[in-house]
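Standup notes, structure subgroup. Blocker cleared on the adenosine-5'-triphosphate input:
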Amino acid sequence: MKNRNMGLLIFLIPIGVAVNFVGGQIAVLLKLPLFLDTIGTFTIGAIAGPFAGILVGLLTCLSISITNPQSLFYVINFMLMGLLAGYLAKKGFFTTVPKTIGAGAIMGLIVGISGSLISYFLFNGFGVSGTGVLGGILMGSGVPVWASAFISNMSVDIIDKVPTALVAYLIIRNIPQKTFVKLPNGNVFLNAYKK
Amino acid sequence: MSYIELKNVSYRYPLAETDALKNINYAFEEGKLYGIIGENGGGKTTFCDLIKGLIPSFYGGDLTGEVFIKGKEIREWESSALASTIGYIFQNPFTQISGIKETVFEEIALGLENLGVEREEIIDRVTSVVRQLKIEHLIKNNPNKLSGGQRQRVAFASIIAMETDILVIDEPTSQLDPKGTSDIFEIIHLLKEQGKTILLVEHKIDLIAEYADEVLVIKQGELITNGKTSDVFSNVNLLNEGVNIPQIALLSNDMKEQGKPFDTFAITRSQAREQILKKGSEKICH
Amino acid sequence: MMDETFINSYRSPQLSKNWLLNLNPLNKINIYIALGLITLFFQHWQVNVVITLVFILLAVAAGRFKSFISPFLKLGLVIGPFFFIVRAIFWPGENMIFNYGIINITQEGIDLGIQYATIMLVVCGILVLCTVTIKAEDLTYSLEKIGVPHNISFMILSSLQLIIDLKDKTNVIMDSQRSRGIETEGNVFVRIKAFVPVLSPLFLGAISGAEEKTIAMDARAFSSANPNTHLRFLRPTPALEKILVILVDILILGLIILGVVL
Ligand SMILES: Nc1ncnc2c1ncn2[C@@H]1O[C@H](COP(=O)(O)OP(=O)(O)OP(=O)(O)O)[C@@H](O)[C@H]1O
Ligand SMILES: [Mg+2]
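Run returned:
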């Protein structure tokens, strides 16, 4: 008989999407100075692998665009995060706090670079949210456009993605073993927690 | 040939240190309602998952022995063929609703759509299930906005629409109030009358006494007792095995110990009433 | 009482009285995006405004003006001015109009700002128009008709429902945390500490629910290899509609070529 765990992935992906929304919403309700709106992508990507992560990112981007049309142009970024979470988790990055911080920083860096490129080529270097104002202030102070785009996007991404990765880590630590055995990246976590 | 047969079945979950099912042998017959009881963590749900074909395909782990459904080994069944042979309903009303349909009518139709049934037949089958379960008033509602009891009835309807011969039902009422519970048992009664083969896990022991033809008692993964419902419950020692026994069965037992046994060992209220009325009238005649 | 009219409604395609709403969802998207693409080739803000007006007219034609205009204005009035202002006051240009500290208003900045602000109006128009003229289940139906697997439909529809469900649960948990005296106000660190206890039960609960849902949907033949059928269905696209869409596409292509040549 066919393996049914493919089914489980199909049901986890929408959860990742919804958690991205809810995380962002709670961050707003608690007036946190962070977005925390990619926790679902990080977590599901980490436990269910790059492919699931990419889908979470894609679907999140599409549904968030309804209320936040600018996001649509950053769809690559949304998917990149899922891909990276899945890949880094496979390499054991989400198994300890220091490694998780490392994963967050790497992801913030890469996503920051790709975000700046998008902002640079599509939006004259201005990010589409607070980063746009930050970039603008830099430009206004005489910093070249490309540098403003990079500095504003990267700093914001790294500041946001490290805590996001940590929250994902806390969630993953509390996922029961019986769930891990059914997940693509599950073995990584089972082996890590055994020790 | 038995309908469902287990031969020397043992099963261990991945990473577990002991077997969740230990060397189980049993043959189920067509058209009967089997009550499965036993203490918490005994392995009842595992047993149901096994028959539903989820072990080992979904859970992984080590399965030894053989499970035959209608003569075919469980590992050889296609999952969609199994879905149209065995229906499965469990306790949580919230996870059994798909969450992708806008009306209860469409929700009940989902399984038939997946099987590729033609539209007219879907409409007929859904309509007839809706009638049987008396949920006409719900068909236009959004399934995601129903109460727990309503959702559980829709879950039953969705499975019944698939017209499976076998139904595995695991604690269907543990999250429902008394009204919800009696609605569900009305449905189970109906299914039994239609000649379905039913495996029912239920902690409300009086309901098992009333509905089950046979009872299986599972403790720590072993099938420790089985037999006709009245025979199983006439053995009061079961109390020591962490199994509840219907109050009426205890009463019958008390009568026996008092030297005034009922003619037949009563386990439900109506049986007891019959016996008591009979005894009463005998006295009057004397 | 069984509602026979309701049941009969599944026997015929889902249709409304409005011709625009009755277009195949993919054709709608095709038309909206084709219109939107014009902006990229003309680079005149006036063109962008005209296209925005066309979207508003389409909303009127669909009988959805009311549901369109409020989200459109809410989005447009935030995003448009935002795109304008950051460019107008920060973009480094030659023709200085006003300069004070980091504020640096130039003619180039203003032109760029107007250009981008109006493009974003068009983007908002497309998205809002999609949400008010296309039902998610109709979209997934037509995607399946062109060969997208129904797993993808499930993921899309399920995501939309779960967003609603989890948001509701969030509010419940936030309230109960507050009433249990867990601080959700106070300084940043207090608030950060409140984040995980709110999110984590939601998330973990949903994950364990996903396992049960897998089992429940398995019992509903979810993994069946048979091609699935559809109870609820849309009409096959009429020839006239196909011609209309092709004409619109050709017309727009023509306009775009014109724009490039000009
Ligand atoms: N997915 C799983 N992975 C590992 N062990 C499991 C899993 N599910 C159940 N078990 C273990 O298997 C044993 C049998 O559990 P099972 O759920 O079948 O019992 P049950 O009789 O249904 O209990 P209850 O009355 O509480 O529903 C228990 O020891 C349980 O901890
Ligand atoms: Mg159980």
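Discussed briefly. Chain A has a mean pLDDT of 91.
Next: hand off to the docking folks.
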